[in-house]
Write a structure and sequence with these properties.
This protein is of the alpha/beta class and about 350 residues long. It has 3 domains: about 180 residues, Rossmann fold (3-Layer(aba) Sandwich); about 70 residues; about 70 residues, no CATH class. It is built from 14 helices and 8 strands. The strands form 2 sheets. The chain has a 5-stranded parallel β-sheet, sandwiched between helices. The radius of gyration is 21 Å and the shape is globular.
Length: about 350
């Protein structure tokens, strides 16, 4: 068995004796689930061919799709590892190694893994969440080294919002292409919005929600083609026991966020106060994750659990010592009246 704690031994281990490190594949979260099997296979083929970016608008489900890709690879015994950038604070080799459940010599270890006829896949997820310049610089360096040192047996894919991809020249230069047919001037795959059929089928699979999509107004139908807003609308509906008629007038992101806020937060003064304090801490730290032991008190336990259950907060890191306010939920911050 390989000894991952002694990097000097890595290169003396034959590939046949090499034990592939284990990174847990996340379970499917509760809520509306749309299995986009054809899209996952298309993304897999795109990545197998060559390195590239996975781009899309806010809430288009980039991270979820990559989790699905990870599950797809796992079912085919193809190594697939995800570096979740929004879980990192500095992007050092030590931190990336912890994220991958290996150690700081993660590149050396991955270079020894051979998936056979297929290419192993290394994913840098949510590049747009790297707001700190030191973190961003370290991540660019890690991506560049991965492309160079893992070129024989791995493919590298980076997920990023379309807007941030366009602005990042250093990132674009890492994935050159001769076929530029859109505003992202590098090799990339654009995640499409949900189709009407996908949205309709998602609701039809839920008891009590059949035909809801057909009853929606035109603007709401457009909004529900974004996976994030589709899932948010689902939470609003189940919170109101399927009283769809009260929400059929929703025509914008702001209106949906407002309804979600009222139904999920305004029922509790403690939730609103906790989120307000957390948001101030996040603004001060310049990060979307925060050490929970720095803000949690004993009387926060129920509030904290409720916010995680509703998908507003998410625990991250190996030891579950940190949690984050989901990035797309930050659109709701104007309602916090922070001054």
């Amino acid at each position: 068995m390989a000894d991952w704690n002694h990097p000097q031994l890595y290169n003396s281990i034959s590939k046949s004796d090499l034990k592939i490190p284990f990174q847990k594949v996340n379970e499917v979260e509760k809520g509306i689930y749309i299995h986009r099997a054809d899209l996952i296979k298309t993304v897999f083929d795109f990545v197998q061919e060559k390195n590239g970016l996975l781009v899309g608008g806010p809430g288009f489900g980039k991270s979820f799709l990559l989790e699905e890709l990870s599950r797809y690879c796992s079912s085919r015994s193809i190594p697939c590892f995800i570096i979740r950038i929004n879980d990192l604070t500095e992007g050092t080799n030590d931190e990336i190694g912890e994220e991958l459940k290996i150690d700081k010599e993660w590149l050396t270890i991955l270079a020894r893994i051979d998936a056979g006829n297929d290419k192993s896949i290394l994913i840098f997820d949510a590049y747009d969440t790297a707001k700190d310049e030191k973190l961003k610089s370290n991540i660019i360096r890690a991506i560049k080294k991965s492309i160079v040192e893992l070129s024989n047996t791995w493919r590298i894919v980076v997920s990023v919002r379309t807007y941030d991809a366009i602005k990042s020249r250093k990132l674009l230069e890492l994935f050159p292409t001769d076929n530029i047919n859109n505003q992202v001037s590098c090799r990339n795959f654009q995640i499409p919005a949900l189709t009407e059929q996908e949205v309709e089928e998602a609701f039809d699979l839920l008891p009590g929600f059949e035909s809801i999509y057909q009853k929606s107004n035109i603007e709401l139908k457009k909004l529900l083609k974004t996976p994030y807003f589709l899932n948010m609308f689902y939470y609003v509906l189940i919170g109101k026991k399927g009283n769809f008629s009260a929400f059929n007038s929703i025509e914008s992101e702001e209106q949906l966020l407002n309804v979600f806020w009222i139904s999920s937060i305004e029922d509790s003064f403690e939730k609103g106060l906790f989120l307000r304090n957390l948001t101030l801490k996040l603004a001060e730290s310049g990060s979307l994750s925060y050490d929970k032991f720095q803000i949690l008190e004993e009387n926060h336990k129920n509030v904290f659990n409720d916010l995680i259950s509703s998908g507003i907060l998410e625990e991250v890191s190996v030891m579950k010592k940190r949690f984050r306010l989901l990035i797309t939920y930050c659109w709701i911050l104007p309602f916090l009246n922070i001054c």
